[in-house]
Design a protein that fits this description.
heterodimer; A: mainly alpha; 2 domains; 2 strands; 4% strand; flat; B: 225 residues; 11 helices
Amino acid sequence: MKIDLNYICLVLGMGFVTYLSRMLPATLLSKQEIPKVFVKFLNFVPAAVLSALLFPGVLMTENKLNIGFSNPLLIAAVLTFPLAYKTKNMFATVLLGMGIVILYNYFI
Amino acid sequence: MHKKEEFLFAIKRVFPIVMGYLPVGFALGVMAADSGFSPMQMGLMSLFVYAGSAQFIAVDMLGSGTSAIPIIITTFLVNLRHFLFSASLAPYFREIKQSLIPLISFFITDETFAVSITDAEQRPLSHIYYFSLYITAYSCWVLSTIIGTTLGNLIPDTKALGFDFALPGMFLALLCMQFKNARFILIALISGLLSIFFIHIIPGNWNVILATVIAAAIGVLIDEN
């Protein structure tokens, strides 16, 4: 494949539609009062988003549910949860989890 | 915070994102090289689009000969979830220069949103923080996809090194920071289970946005004050 006008238009189009949903709410809502009920809703968004990303990430392997000892990411998530909950330390959680996955891949 | 302090804080916070983006960017590049992409083409897409899952889908669709319009529509739908991220950041963006918001919001992704909303809840942040965190993550993404496409299958398997856990581990720690009371734990549990449920019944990355909207709406309903 070569970089031609069609390809440039494609990536510009993809970039534009993506940019719209990234830019519009931040730009418009930062200028005006947000209705109270919507503020409450937005309060729950980070917890809900993080969980919606985390669950498939650690409970599924290659688009299939994988709950058990054959899933190193799930084992790492379960073992690092107490550390994450107690310390809220992102750095330590990621490093410990990666260490667990390395050990798992080495021994099992 | 002092400017330099804020910069260093952002660099510290971006670390897990970098660890997570490198292997995913490599993997995307390798896949793109297999479908006939040049490093330059991949780099252009990463520069303009900067969205992992949408780029995987686009590379796959282009490889199978899909035309531009369906790819752009799919990209729009897959990336609609950024609407929620952008809206959630809006109250915190009030503290930064208004003319910078259209520029800063270009860099909102799942990962940069997750880290920056958590930090913004804890302390006031200026554009120094956002630019430092966002542009580091962005450069890392663009470069890793270009390197992946250039080296193709020469890239070693990063799975054995545990890189797979970088992003889930980051989401886990950030999620724990959101547990302000039992209600938030309940909402997180509902959202996680809904996300898995929707992956199985609706194709095309709708799980995150649907699970989030439903779970956060339940949160509003059970919020007594």
